[in-house]
């Protein structure tokens, strides 16, 4: 594995970041692939809206488990044991999957989808059917994340990329094969779960020779796992709660089914293009060593973000967006008219998301993950407040959904930047001043 000191030139940054960006693109390809399949269902509006609602609920359930990868890698690299992480992850995943099963097979589904989110009766039935395929996902995520962390600690990232590629391929094959049944929201759910099973199996099977997995400090590790994970879990939980909140807002607009379906399409396209900036957290954790490297890495990350932003703005031009959306998602003219105007607003995603990820990484690097959780709270509170203020306003559809998401990201970004200047930058400047090894600043003018 290359040392961080050799990665702070522009070429080093590119070598470090390109595989991560490619992995993000493969992961984010899930949404446009499934949206393209769902849009070809017999009832595309109900299928898209039903899957959007079901996956939003599922996302809230499995989101806390995404941090297990970071926790597992940190514990093993820090000389801790692996078994406390797996016990914590598997137990939490099993409990959250149980909640998912209750939503899928009991009247809790009506409560969540009809009353809490507020979907129509047609979309309700689609969402419940989808949850019958999605409920195992939290446990699958727990197992996958734990072993991904083990592979990261063992410097074996190729199996992770291979697993992600296998997941994406299986997901696409299953989704389009099931279209012969007439489709529906359950199609997307079945394909997603099948892909997760494949990804989990690959990372579980991959070995990490030379990595000591068990030590004599299991009890201490168990306490540290929960303590370290808490603010990061809150962060990802609120991240995945955001589409659920926005879906609930759109469900109370004049044309809810079309608004939710159009929002799902715009999100699929925008987040796929924004995906390359999603790994900026790893860049700030691994590459930033002082104020000067912070400046350089942030600048190179900004180039990536602005490039993706420019691409989204280009695709937002009516002459391009209409044929692209029509070809990829087979959108009827009504849905096309609702989704299209939201794309220029979604062009802000890469910049705001990259800013968020980069500064979150700085806080994790500095051992201050609590600010990550607080920033997420600010984002959700601002979205809810804006939604309440806009009740009854003329704005609606996908424009409303994307606008709320952009506003929340902007508030979170401002909070993180402000707190980083107060609590992180003084440390980075001190590390720059205290540096005695010139090689630590290779490539820095």
Descriptive overview:
The chain is mainly α and about 450 residues long. It folds into two domains: about 1-20 and about 255-435, no CATH class; about 40-210 and about 220-230, no CATH class. The protein has helices at about 10-30, 30-40, 45-60, 70-75, 85-105, 110-115, 120-135, 135-155, 160-175, 185-205, 220-250, 255-275, 280-285, 290-315, 320-330, 335-340, 345, 350-365, 370-390, 395-425, 425-435. Helix 2 packs parallel to helix 9 and helix 3 runs antiparallel to helix 5 (about 85-105).
Jot down its keywords.
disordered N terminus, 2 domains, globular
What is the element string, with H for helices and E for strands?
HHHHHHHHHHHHHHHHHHHHH
Shape: globular
The main β sheet shows up as: none
| Proportion of residues in helical segments | over 70%
Quickly count the domains. 2
Low-confidence stretches: 1-7, 440-445
What structural category arises from helix and sheet content? mainly alpha
How far apart are the termini? 25 Å
By DSSP (H or I, 4+ residues per run), the number of helices equals 21
Count every beta strand, where a strand is a DSSP E run of 2 or more residues. Answer: 0
Radius of gyration: 22 Å
Amount of beta strand: under 5%
Mean pLDDT: 84
Task: Furnish the topology, listing elements before pairings.
Elements: H1 10-28, H2 30-38, H3 44-62, H4 68-77, H5 83-105, H6 108-117, H7 121-134, H8 137-153, H9 158-177, H10 185-205, H11 218-250, H12 256-274, H13 280-287, H14 291-315, H15 318-329, H16 333-339, H17 343-346, H18 349-365, H19 370-389, H20 397-423, H21 425-434
